[in-house]
Write a structure and sequence with these properties.
125 residues, mainly alpha, 3 helices
Length: 125
């Protein structure tokens, strides 16, 4: 404190004022009820998270930010467990397909370069 002035800095990203006037209390309550209902699995309550954050932005309790920057991308915004399972299954299938393509491409590259393919040992029956 030089000259009787207190220096301050802006809050870190992610910190924001408390809702002293309960302006977003209903949205917070809905989210907390959803999390309790779904046994503390917040992924199932993404819509309520969005509504709460939207309220905070609208009331000036936090800076306006895109939902994508807040982690609400399409791949993690499932509304139901079935949607999540379907997404994960499709992602695994895509990874398997890419792995098969890589194996085939490498085999073709080895054959083209003249490197003999390693024979797999046969297991005794």
């Amino acid at each position: 404190m030089s000259g009787g002035r207190i220096s301050s800095k802006a809050p870190d990203k992610g910190s924001f004022p408390l809702d002293h006037f309960h302006e977003c209390e209903q949205e917070a309550k809905k989210y907390n009820e959803c999390v309790a209902k779904h046994q503390l699995m917040p992924k199932r309550c993404r819509q309520f998270q969005r509504e709460y954050l939207e309220c905070r932005m609208n009331k000036g309790l936090m800076d306006r930010e895109s939902f994508e920057r807040l982690g609400f991308t399409e791949e993690v915004s499932w509304e139901t467990e079935e949607q999540e399972k379907k997404f994960l299954f499709n992602r695994i299938e895509e990874m398997k397909r890419k792995a098969r393509e890589n194996v085939q491409r490498r085999r073709a590259e080895k054959q083209a370069s003249g490197v003999p393919e390693v024979q797999k040992p046969k297991l005794p029956e």
